[in-house]
Automatic annotation (TrEMBL), chain B:
Name by which UniProt lists this protein: Tubulin delta chain
GO terms under biological process: cell projection organization; microtubule-based process
Keyword DNA damage: no
Function: Acts as a positive regulator of hedgehog signaling and regulates ciliary function.
Residues covered by the Tubulin/FtsZ GTPase domain: 47-247
Predominant location category: other
Gene3D superfamilies hit by this protein: Tubulin/FtsZ, GTPase domain
Residue runs in coiled coils: none
One Pfam family it belongs to: Tubulin
Protein family (similarity comment): Belongs to the tubulin family.
SMART domains: Tubulin (SM00864)
Organism phylogeny: Eukaryota, Metazoa, Chordata, Craniata, Vertebrata
One MF term in the entry's GO annotations: GTP binding
Subcellular locations according to the entry: Cell projection, Cilium; Cytoplasm, Cytoskeleton, Microtubule organizing center, Centrosome, Centriole; Nucleus
């Protein structure tokens, strides 16, 4: 059984991360009735004897003493992390696995990447090595961050290079929240494009999350909850709608519902690696099956039930007629079956797709970037940082353009009849 | 006459369990519709073949379990122990922590060499427990990473180390769609490597067995457990003892030892039950057929249909290509049962399909970087294609 380490960077990353740990604990609590520290829990949690001072407290088997998340929390301002450490999950996090600063990155990718990157490189390495040491067999790093800000975007992507160099055999799964069109951070296009170059080059797999889409989903759920149409489709006790409950009350934490969805995504993604099933899927299989070319590693995700239940059968083929597959992968389906359902549901379905539908999103992002860049608006904030030059921008947008071009070429093959290549002929 | 089974990967281990369970249950069926003495001899033979005796009387399967991640093996071991009737050896498994990621190259080039010694040692230990080794039965799938890649590596090793023992690989042909995206690559690499080192490939297609579950058995929500149990039933009916030349009470026939090798082998197994020959205009041409009859009236059964020269290729007389094995002892309470193992053009179409799809994908170079990362280069792919095209052509010309 393998372990994974979650690295949550920036405000968005940490808030989503917090939701994830909350859900993970609840799921394991529901499944693990006897309180024994087993392989499933150990994939994301350590079992620690808190009476032991220092580092010797790890317990590998037996009853659960105190669970600590395999996580590293990074933020360049203290507010969010402090809130987590004072909240209900405070005991889940090891307070030695934090890296914080006071001033924040000012929504500036360059500050996050160049300034804080070099300032905290050693510390980051140290914490990562520590968490790796606690793992029997580390398979994957999950990085959670946003693209539009400064810390998550800049420092988060700086991390990728560090991880690639230090742990080349460990997969890097990045959950990146992309800013919506109406994002209130003016420089978010700069930050996003600069970050995308790093994602292109150093991530194994990216799960892009569109803030606008999340918002739309929550609005729909909200509508259903308020109109009283819950009933059979949306289960009151499910982990997804527990956020709906929160919505019914005050909008205390406006992003809670949206973060919950992302957290659910990560939970479902790892379920087959944590629990048993008749057709297991390890995380390395995701990359193997869904990434045909190294650059094209952006996976669009969809989850049910969010507000309706779908039918799950082996193998799922209902979607097939409406999807257009590329000619050399007409049956490009990878299936995995896990026996343990999510809390409050009898079953669920997570779909990951490597689809050229990401192309318009990237193109739009590039469009927004160019609008600012042409006018050189706000550029001085970046250029005044040591190590930043205009060429960084040029390279970044060129990297994104290259990616868009690759998707375009694949799209172009659609509709044109592709002849099967003549087979090898052999003498018998 | 003992057979050592090697179960590889999730598929191999899940099926392996069902097979041993089926074999054990059959051998302990009360009476089996024959004389008591007959039954005892049958039981003895089955036991010697597949199980070795443990101190406290619980038979231990002659099997080595291999997987690169622990979940399935743990499940398999506990299911066997739970039954209380038979079990796997405590030290008969080899496990790692991280799987092969559906990557044939990883299974073959990384896991293989890395774990060669401990795995071969485990197999050696099982072999030493046998008074007389018939051969090896290797259960694996083609679509994944461990069963396919590591399976190919281990089979090669078995060829080198035990060149006198027979090796039969039970390979699972994946569903046409929806299991693993790179299954066609993994399949052609597996087949081409097994061709060079295995003696016989016994093939079960997931699609075919699925149909059996749906149409013949009317199961509504088919799970892999159902599929595996059907498979186990079929395999059991082939591998359980049958009379050797001397006739009743003599069960010394080697189930692995039929002369399959007229040409490089590829055999298929149609559904169990009354085998009715469709009087079609065109038969799949056979190179060799084996019918196994169990139960009532086996000696008087009419097998004339199988000796029809139209079934066979022109350069073989039916008498050289057809064999029948029999026993009066019924299989798992079926009064009469028949099994057919066939080396014919049966698999020509599926093989051709897989090669075609893999070729198309290969032309676009998709996913190749995942294999070259671990040392399987484009030339290796081309070699595999060449070999399999030759197989396709050979079977076409039969």
């Amino acid at each position: 059984m393998t372990q994974s380490v979650v690295v949550q960077v920036g405000q968005c990353g940490n808030q989503i991360g917090c939701c994830f740990w909350d859900l993970a604990l609840r799921e394991h609590a529901a499944v693990n009735q006897k309180g024994i520290y087993d392989e499933a829990i150990s994939s994301f949690f350590r079992n620690v004897d808190t009476r032991v001072v220092g580092d010797g407290g790890s317990i590998s088997k037996g009853k659960i003493c105190s669970l600590k998340a395999r996580a590293v929390l990074i933020d360049m301002e203290e507010g969010v992390v402090n809130e987590i450490l004072q909240g209900p999950l405070r005991d889940v996090f090891d307070n030695k696995q934090l890296i914080t600063d006071i001033s924040g990155s000012g929504n500036n990718w360059a500050v996050g990447h160049k300034v804080f990157g070099s300032l905290y490189q050693e510390q980051i390495l140290e914490k990562l090595r520590k968490s790796a040491e606690h793992c029997d067999c580390l398979q994957c790093f999950f990085i959670i961050h946003s693209m539009g800000g400064g810390t998550g975007s800049g420092l988060g992507t700086f991390l990728l290079k560090v991880l690639e160099d230090e742990f080349p055999e460990v997969y890097r799964f990045v959950t990146s929240v992309y800013p919506s069109g109406e994002d209130d951070v003016i420089t978010s296009p700069y930050n996003s494009i600069l970050a995308m170059k790093e994602l292109n080059e150093h991530a194994d797999c990216v799960l892009p999350i569109d803030n606008q889409s999340l918002f739309d989903i929550i609005s729909k759920i909200d509508l259903m909850v308020n109109s009283g149409k819950l009933g059979t489709t949306v289960k009151p006790k499910s982990l997804v709608t527990s956020s709906a409950e929160a919505l019914k009350k005050q909008h205390q934490k406006p992003f809670d519902g949206m973060n919950n969805i992302v957290a659910n995504l990560l939970l479902n993604l790892t379920s087959s690696a944590r629990f048993e099933g008749s057709l297991n899927m390890d995380l390395n299989e995701i990359s193997m099956n869904l990434v045909p070319f190294p650059q094209l590693h952006y996976l669009v995700s969809s989850l049910t039930p969010l507000y309706t239940l779908a039918d799950v059968n082996i193998p799922t083929r209902r979607l097939k007629p409406s999807l257009q597959f590329i000619s050399w992968n007409q049956e490009g389906w990878k299936t995995s079956l896990c026996s343990v359902p999510p809390v409050g549901h009898s079953h669920s379905l997570l779909a990951l797709a490597n689809n050229t539908c990401v192309k318009p999103t990237f193109m739009e992002l590039r469009e927004r970037f160019m609008r600012l860049y042409k006018k050189k608006a706000h550029l001085h904030h970046y250029l005044q940082i040591e190590g930043m030059e205009e060429s960084c921008f040029a390279e970044a947008v060129s990297s994104v353009s290259g990616l868009i071009e690759e998707y375009k070429q694949l799209d172009a093959t659609l509709g044109t009849p592709v002849e099967d290549l003549p087979r090898l002929s052999v003498a018998v | 006459m003992s057979i050592v089974t090697v179960q590889l990967g999730q598929c191999g281990n899940q099926i392996g369990f069902e097979v041993f369970d089926a074999l054990y249950n059959d051998s302990h069926c009360p009476q089996g519709l024959c004389s008591k003495r007959e039954n005892e001899v049958y039981q003895e033979s089955c036991k010697e073949r597949f199980f070795s005796e443990e101190e406290n009387g619980v038979p231990v399967a002659r099997a080595v379990l291999v997987d690169m991640e622990p979940k399935v093996i743990n499940q398999t071991l506990s299911k066997a122990a739970q039954s209380g009737q038979w079990k796997y050896g405590q030290h008969s498994c080899f496990c790692q922590k991280q799987g092969s990621g559906n990557n044939w190259a990883y299974g073959y080039s990384v896991h293989g060499p890395r774990h060669e010694e401990p795995i071969m040692n485990l197999i050696q230990k099982e072999v030493e427990k046998c008074d007389c080794l018939s051969g090896f039965f290797i259960i694996m799938s083609m679509a994944g990473g461990t069963g396919s890649g590591l399976g190919a590596f281990i089979t090669q090793n078995l060829q080198d180390q035990y060149s006198n023992a027979l090796k039969m690989n039970q390979i699972i042909w994946p569903y046409g769609t929806g299991e693993v995206i790179v299954q066609n690559y993994n399949s052609i690499l597996t087949l081409s490597h097994l061709y060079r080192s295995s003696d016989a490939l016994l093939v079960h297609e997931n699609d075919a067995v699925h149909k059996i579950c749906a149409k013949l058995m009317n199961i509504k929500q088919i799970s892999f457990r159902d599929i595996n149990q059907v498979l186990a039933h079929q395999l059991g009916s082939v591998f359980q003892p049958t009379y050797s030349m001397e006739g009743s009470y003599h069960y010394r026939r080697n189930p692995l030892g039929i002369n399959w090798q007229v040409r490089p082998p590829l055999s298929g197994l149609p559904p169990l039950g009354k085998v009715s020959l469709n009087r079609e205009l065109h038969f799949n041409t056979s190179i060799a057929n084996l019918v196994i009859l169990r139960g009532k009236d086996v000696h008087s059964a009419d097998l004339g249909g199988f000796k029809d020269p139209e079934l066979y290729t022109s350069w073989l007389a039916p008498v050289n290509a057809f064999s029948a094995w029999k026993t009066q002892r019924a299989f798992r309470k079926y009064e009469k049962s028949a099994a057919l193992v066939s080396n014919s053009q049966f698999l020509l179409k599926p093989l051709d399909t897989i090669v075609g799809k893999a070729w198309n994908m290969f032309a676009s170079k998709a996913y190749i970087h995942q294999y070259t990362k671990f040392g399987i280069e484009e030339e290796d792919f081309l070699d595999s294609f060449t070999l399999l095209e030759q197989v396709v052509a050979s079977y076409c010309n039969v």
